[in-house]
Amino acid sequence: MSNIILFIVIGLLAGILSGLFGIGGGVIIVPALIYLCSFTQLKAQGTSLAVLLPPVGILGFIEYYKKGNVDIKGGIIICLMVLIGSLLGSKIAQVISPDLLKKGFALFMIAVSLKMLFTK
Fold it and tell me: Membrane-spanning regions, if any (predicted)?
């Protein structure tokens, strides 16, 4: 049950940040699955491809799936939440100044980079 809640949060966050900053969900989803759900790097990447499946990741998803590196339930839940979150994020982006949006994106990328660089 706790993973389902995490999947919902990850999906909403990925969607909001995608809508807000125009970034791909994998930038958020992969690190979140690794650090919040204890997924391996491969399972996080495979599940992220499941979320972004049509049409971007179909061949990659199939390869990860064949090797057992996809969480289908997580992929579906996160995908649904990305849809909702991207709507919310895009609405927020329309009312924020471009300068604040640019700085927010830069800070987010620095935070994710530092987390991935200095943790296992």
Answer: 6-37, 49-66, 72-88
pTM: 0.72
Cα–Cα distance, 68 to 73 (Å, whole number):
13
Q: Which domain holds residue 53?
A: 2-118
Burial class (CB in 10 A: 0-12, 13-18, 19+), 104: middle
The angle at the Cα of 28, spanning 22 to 32, to the nearest 5 degrees, equals 165
Q: How many folded domains does the chain comprise?
A: 1
Reported as a pLDDT band with limits 50, 70 and 90, residue 54 is low
CA 59 from centre of chain: 19
